[in-house]
Fold:
Amino acid sequence: MTASTIYKTVAVLLVLYAAGHTLGFAHVDPAWGVDAPIAALRTTTFTAQGISGRTFWGFYYGFGIFCSVLLLFSAAIAWQLGAVPASTLRNMQLASWSFVLAFAATTVVTWRWFFTAPVVFSAMITAGLVAAAALARRG
Structure:
C-alpha cells in the first residue's frame, strides 16, 4: 500500500467522521435523564464580551459545528496529501507528522471524554496517518 492510498482512505474516514459527528453531536437521548440540565443550557442567557443572549447550549452547538468544519478541512488536506508525488511528500515531513500528532491528541481526548465511535474513528485515522507518514518518509 502507498502513502497516497492511505491518505485518501484517511480522507474518506474523516468525511464519515464529520458526517457522524454533525448528525449526532447535538442529539440528546431522553433515556439519559438529562432533560433539565439541557433545558437550562438552552434557556439560561448571559452576556459574553458585550454580546447578549448567549447560552452554553449555543457555545456547545457552535463548537460542534466548528469541529465538523475542521474534520472536513482535515479530509481535504488528507486527500490533497494523497495527490502529492512521493518525492514531494518525502519533503513534507513536518506537515505529515504534525497531522499525526494532532490526531493522536484527538484520540486521547476522545478516549478520555467521549465514547466508542469517536475513539474508533480517531484511532483508525491516527493509525492511517502514522502509516502514511512513515511510508512517505521512506519515499
